[in-house]
Write a structure and sequence with these properties.
With 435 residues, the protein is an all-alpha fold. Helix content is 66%, strand content 1%.
């Protein structure tokens, strides 16, 4: 009583002191601005979105520059290819927005049906037998290429299957043999088109996902070893593969002995120098560079923007891969991690192969440069892949804000747990275990 009266006399007020009242009252939360609320609700990975949009807009510019002469000779209109690509760009933005807001777990319900439809389309291509540039790869007047869809569907299918079998992958009967069967069916149908680059891409992606899912290293070595042997035999026996290797090896020793396509591509890079001749001012596309708006568009980029532009584009793809791995690391569960790692690896792999082919670092593959090459099939499946990446990022952002922190043990990509490398999602119980 005396102490309380003395405190009141000193402070001039009765009751508890100011410091005691502050400690007793609950902490006030900071008000959330409308912009912050929208960010929490949307959860969009802005860096990834900006990277992809930058590449796509740059691709539109380069398609216009690379296609006007080719389009006029082929269709009698200098802008037909560009207008079609612009329309695909706008449609692609809509697809991106829709897919980004579809929970990626939803694809688990449709993945078997999607794989069946993809296999049927690959068979239909062979039945229709629409020959273009010496290959049977397209349908409906060359507007649809099922092998591009097969890459995306295979990644989703394998991610779902590997995640569901993650505790049984060490058993050959549940791991290596079913995986080889899946890849063999899809790869075999694509091989007879022939589309060797798509087959190699699918097998590489299958091996990467098998590795990330936590498969036994011995099985992975067996898969890679068998794939290399079979691939080498196929290339040597297949006329297309044999021809490409025959033109590739001499070009390594002497660029003047490379294939006509590679020689014209190298000529474009030499003309471009460090800074390029300027967008729209390239001449190699006018003097015989094969298919400049599609397979050879990186050569046009090299000539018109030089080493600077080519390197900038390579950096953008590298940043895309980095964002994909960040999304994989933060995904709410192992399925999201496998999807994010597989999709981002696929997009960047396609880009690197296309670039490497143009400078004769790899045998000619004939694949598109993602988001840049003219063509609907490659652009749409690449955009859909980015939409799934954005959704995985959105789901992880939502889980973090709803639960107060991300789920623990998402995926270790892959070294921390030797027994179970893709553990089930769980919340961490105490701050001490928070990493």
């Amino acid at each position: 009583m005396f102490q309380t009266t003395r405190d009141a006399a000193v402070t001039g007020r009765s009751g508890p002191s100011k410091s005691a009242a502050k400690l007793a009252s609950p902490p006030k939360s900071r008000p959330v601005s409308p912009a912050q609320a929208r960010a929490v609700y949307l959860g969009i990975d802005v860096p990834l979105l900006l990277i992809v949009l930058t590449i796509m807009v740059f691709g539109l510019l380069m398609v216009y520059s690379a296609s006007w002469d080719y389009s006029f000779k082929l269709y009698g209109s200098a802008t037909r290819i560009f207008i079609r690509q612009l329309a695909l760009f706008l449609v692609g933005l809509g697809v991106l927005g829709v897919v980004a807001f579809i929970d990626y777990h939803f694809w688990r319900r449709l993945v078997v049906l999607a794989m069946i439809i993809t296999v049927l389309l690959l068979v239909a291509v062979l039945i229709i037998n629409e020959v273009r540039n010496g290959a049977v790869r397209t349908m409906w007047g060359g507007s649809v290429q099922p092998s591009e869809l097969a890459k995306l569907v295979t990644i989703i299918y394998l991610s779902v299957w590997l995640y569901s079998k993650r505790d049984q992958l060490s058993d050959v009967n549940f791991g290596l043999i079913p995986l080889a069967a899946i890849l063999g069916v899809v790869g075999g149908l694509i091989f007879v088109q022939p589309d060797l680059s798509a087959v190699v891409t699918i097998f590489l992606l299958g091996s990467i996902l098998f590795f990330l899912a936590g498969a036994d290293l011995k099985q992975i070595f067996i898969l890679v070893f068998v794939a290399l042997i079979v691939g080498s035999l196929v290339v040597l026996v297949n006329p297309t593969g044999n021809e490409r290797i025959a033109s590739y090896l001499p070009g390594l020793r002497d660029p003047s002995q490379a294939s006509y396509h590679v020689r014209r591509s190298l000529e474009a890079f030499v003309n471009g120098g460090w800074l390029g001749v300027g967008v729209g001012k390239g001449v190699t596309k006018l003097t015989g560079l094969p298919v400049p708006p599609t397979d050879s568009i990186f050569a046009v980029i090299g000539e018109e923007t030089g080493v600077l532009g080519s390197t900038t584009l390579l950096i953008l793809y590298t940043l895309l891969f980095w964002r994909g791995l960040q999304i994989a690391r933060r995904a709410p569960d192992g399925l999201g991690s496998l999807l994010a790692a597989g999709l981002s690896s696929w997009i960047v792999m396609e880009a690197l192969v296309n670039m490497a082919v143009m400078v004769n670092l790899l045998p000619f593959a004939g694949n598109a440069l993602p988001f840049i090459s003219a063509g609907g099939s490659s652009l749409m499946v690449s955009i859909a892949a980015v939409g799934i990446l954005l959704n995985i990022s959105r789901m992880s952002f939502r889980a973090k804000n709803e639960e107060g922190r991300p789920f623990g043990a998402v995926i270790d990509l892959r070294w921390r747990d030797r027994r179970r490398r893709v553990p089930r999602p769980r919340r961490l119980a105490s701050p001490r275990r928070d990493r």
